[in-house]
Amino acid sequence: MSTGQAVHMNQGEGEASYARNSTLQSGEQNRMRPVIEEAVKCLIKSTKSDGKIAIADLGCSSGPKALALVSCAVDAIFQHYRADREQVPPELSVFLNDLPDNDFNVVAKSLVAFHESDQRIGLVTGGIVPGSFYKRLFARSSLHLIFASSSVHWLSRAPEDLRTNGIPMYDGDDDLRQARGPLVLEAYARQFKNDLNLFLNLRAQELVSAGQMVISVPGRCASDGTCHKNLAWDAVACVLNDMATREVIDREKLNSFYIPIHAPSDVELREIIEVEGSFKINKMVVHEPKSGMDKSSITPKMIALGGRAVFEPMLVQHFGKSDQIGEEFVRTMEQHLSTGRSEFPPPGLFLLCVSLTKMV
Ligand SMILES: C[S@@+](CC[C@H](N)C(=O)[O-])C[C@H]1O[C@@H](n2cnc3c(N)ncnc32)[C@H](O)[C@@H]1O
Q1: Region entry Disordered: which residue ranges (predicted)?
Q2: CA distance 35 to 96
Q3: What CATH number did the domain enclosing 131 receive?
Q4: Whose CA is nearest to atom 27 of ligand 1?
């Protein structure tokens, strides 16, 4: 990342790892399944795969769930060829991408286990592709299916204009925060627009004609015109503000801390895709963040541990205090959620799942 921010989830498979604390993201991967199955059908109907299909997950992170989306696509492809015995099943390659600091050791083990447990002829492991999805990752016209869950809302960098104008992501002063909220949101939206434009352009080069892409990001509904917050990080910033007030972290450091994620509105997302022009939108599905999940498992502690798994590397890099900051973050977030100071999901936050076909 150009700002040098430590963008990776907590590594390994221990207590604080992303692998063990990503139930909410897994919930969205499950909700994406029918959309992925439809994308596979669409692909098989409309493209000539020449006996091979290449599938990539971008921003896969680590842990067993890194393979959830590609595995869903592999199942759907084999199901199709089982039903139509006249056709020879294609050879499949799967590629898993994330930033270089991701824990690829865990991913490599999951990939090997997936390959070994799957005896179906034609399944060929592709491999691991470290690098930013804001650069070209694959050869031209080499991919048939691309998936990305809870990753494309990560920006290539936090909005530089906020930093240069000394506008913090989250003002400690309530009035200032209210007044500057729309400005901050606009700066994030501009950065997201630039980044998503680039992402779409790069993926359009890598996909075959009529190739399919399914992405899901946290987002908002534009009809909720009153929301001037970045819902992707507002609750986290509120926790950090509390920690700064209690002098657990340094207020000045908080004022120069920017979380590089943006939750777009449905209209914003649709408009960027349409104007960029490489893809046709097949459908956009709006998911409620808890739908299809066991609601009793979604406790304040579970959400706080999930937040820690995502943000701890970045917090340690910026604020230091590596042994305390994660623990204190969990304690504070759990308390905010238990006392109603914040809510999960924050009102107005949804997951926007969009299915796209690359135009010829
Ligand atoms: C919240 S995790 C989601 C992981 C997984 N897709 C899931 O649904 O559980 C976001 C992932 O996106 C990755 N990511 C963020 N920016 C990226 C970029 N520019 N290129 C590749 N991966 C990126 C992060 O490193 C992280 O592993």
Answers
A1: 1-30
A2: 20
A3: 3.40.50.150
A4: 61
The DSSP-derived string for 205-249 is HHEEEEEEEEEEEEEE-TT-TT--S-TTTHHHHHHHHHHHHTTSS
Confidence of residue 15 (pLDDT cuts 50, 70, 90): confident
Q: Residues 270-319: pLDDT tens digits?
A: 999 999 999 999 999 999 888 888 888 899 998 999 999 999 989 988 98
In the predicted structure, residue 123 carries a pLDDT above the cut 80: no
Q: Is residue 11 part of a domain?
A: no
Structural domain count, the chain: 1
**262 lies in a domain?**
yes
The rounded distance, in Å, linking the Cα atoms of 59 and 49 is 25
Lining residues, ligand 1, CB within 6 Å: 7-9, 22, 25, 29, 58-61, 65, 97-99, 102, 132-134, 149-151, 154, 310
Over range 85-94, report the average pLDDT.
82
Q: Whose CA is nearest to atom 1 of ligand 1?
A: 150
113, 259, 305, 334 from 70: Cα distances, Å: 14, 28, 26, 33
